């Protein structure tokens, strides 16, 4: 006879699985290095966008090589490096150092809109990501409790991460605060991601009934198969 999970076991499993699946601290730190290099190069070279761009791309290449040596997917590495090159290109073309961060601002704006739309369409992206990583495909959507919980937790990502970044980056970009943008780019990367994961995990757990078996066990799995 299968043991029915108690609320304590369920809560621990739910929080643990979300944090483990959506970790990625190393990747977030890697993404912060090129922007910091841009700001450092820009300052050291007497506010030269060219040297700032060179420093950012050079560091981006080093990070890419190191990630490849760690066995990361080539496509993801190339995409990250391409984003650094594009950000540098934009700043060089406009002649405004703050425009190096324009791509980051726009990508977070798009992310906020896409995540919000996914919730309204009843396909919350947090559920899509976690469900895919757990090998559930779309089976989690057949569990009304999980669908509701993922929807509520996804709003944390919309407002607690992407909207915060849009507001902060937007204000700093508008006022031309290049150094502050570099600092914000670091602070609003892994620390904010970690906080978002923690809060959304808490919301996800609180939204599920106390007798729910947890993220890994949508109730539909007991009597439905693909």
UniProtKB/TrEMBL annotation:
Signal peptide: none annotated. It comes from the Bacteria. The keyword Cell inner membrane does not apply. It holds the Pfam family DUF3159. Keywords: Membrane, Transmembrane, Transmembrane helix. The chain crosses the membrane at residues 48-65, 74-92, 112-134, 155-175, 187-208. This is DUF3159 domain-containing protein.
């Amino acid at each position: 006879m299968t043991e029915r999970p108690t609320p304590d076991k369920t809560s621990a499993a739910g929080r643990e699985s979300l944090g483990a699946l959506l970790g990625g601290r190393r990747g977030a730190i890697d993404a912060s290095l090129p922007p910091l290099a841009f700001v450092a190069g820009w300052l050291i070279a007497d506010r030269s966008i060219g040297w700032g761009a060179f420093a950012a791309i050079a560091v981006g290449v080093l990070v890419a090589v190191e990630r490849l040596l760690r066995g990361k997917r080539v496509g993801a590495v190339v995409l990250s490096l391409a984003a650094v090159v594009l950000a540098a290109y934009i700043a060089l073309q406009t002649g405004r150092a703050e425009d190096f961060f324009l791509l980051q601002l726009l990508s977070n704006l798009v992310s906020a809109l896409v995540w919000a739309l996914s919730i309204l369409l009843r396909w919350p992206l947090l559920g899509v990501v976690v469900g895919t990583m757990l090998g559930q495909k779309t089976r989690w959507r057949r569990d009304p409790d999980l669908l509701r919980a993922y929807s509520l937790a996804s709003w944390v990502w919309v407002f607690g991460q992407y909207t915060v970044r849009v507001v902060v980056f937007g204000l700093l970009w508008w006022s031309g605060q290049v150094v502050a943008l570099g600092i914000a780019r670091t602070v609003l990367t892994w620390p904010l991601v970690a906080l978002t994961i923690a809060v959304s995990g808490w919301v996800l757990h609180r939204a599920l009934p106390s007798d729910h078996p947890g993220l890994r066990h949508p109730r539909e799995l007991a009597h439905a198969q693909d």
